[in-house]
Specification:
Elements: H1 3-20, H2 26-34, E1 55-56, E2 62-63, H3 66-76, E3 83-87, H4 93-99, E4 104-109, H5 112-124, E5 130-134, E6 147-152, H6 161-165, E7 167-177, E8 184-192, E9 195-204
Parallel strand pairs: 3-4, 3-6, 4-5, 6-7
Antiparallel strand pairs: 1-2, 7-8, 8-9
């Protein structure tokens, strides 16, 4: 099998795995077909980039399994006009997917190293509609609020108040909620004129959402 046909086969299996887990939105599948997960995974685990599994990355964080990325993205119902906030840049993979669907993506992480490495990949892929910043994501990004969509890629005990406040009327936030590593639910929050609706989507497991900035391992 040639390299090209092997790559095509692997991509086809990747998309089939996404569909089989419930990722059916054509725009989301198109974005995930276009953005190669490979560049976002370095070192020992690079060969597993096309498997539907979470993998460790720097700073004690993880890159979510592709089906969860797809399901969270699908739950946001992003339109081409939307301004999106992502809390928890991690590898940058989720932000890259969002960049294919939204007008503008702001992504924040408490670890400078992760923001720097993700930004390098965004530049290499010419993803010009992403702004990556080192910040305490639990407070959102007040300077750029309000947002049409907010996605949180770390688990909070409750949907964070500052993030709810930065969501536009009619906006949607997707956030994992749970008080332990073992029991978490993916929640979709929709803001209305009179309050918020909460939909429980599925069980998940994410690293906890922590306040404050992380120690910058690369600057020790």
């Amino acid at each position: 099998m040639s390299f090209d046909s092997e790559t095509a086969e692997r991509k086809m299996q990747f998309l089939f795995a996404l569909r089989s887990k419930g990722v059916t939105d054509a725009r989301v599948l198109g974005a995930m077909e276009k953005i190669d997960r490979g560049p976002f995974i370095r070192g020992l685990f690079a060969e597993r980039a096309y498997q539907d599994m979470p993998l460790p990355i720097a700073c004690g964080q993880t890159i979510s399994q592709p089906s969860v990325v797809g399901l969270m993205t699908q739950a946001l119902k992003i339109t081409a006009r939307d301004k999106v906030l992502e809390v928890g840049t991690g590898s940058g993979y989720q932000a890259a997917i969002l960049s294919q669907l939204a007008r503008r993506v702001y992504t924040v992480d408490r670890h400078k190293r992760l923001v720097r490495e993700a930004s390098e990949i965004f530049r290499a892929l010419d993803l010009t509609n992403i702004t990556a910043l080192t910040a305490d994501g639990s407070f959102g990004l007040p300077d750029q609020a309000p947002f049409d969509r907010i996605i949180v890629t770390a688990a909070a005990e409750d949907p964070p108040g500052p993030l709810l406040a930065q969501l536009k009327i009619g906006g949607i936030m997707v956030v994992p909620v749970g008080q332990s590593d073992a029991v978490q639910s993916l929640i979709r929050v929709t803001r209305h004129e009179t309050g918020f609706d909460y939909d429980e989507l599925r069980p998940v497991r994410f690293v906890p959402l922590l306040e404050g900035l992380g120690r910058d391992e690369a600057q020790r």
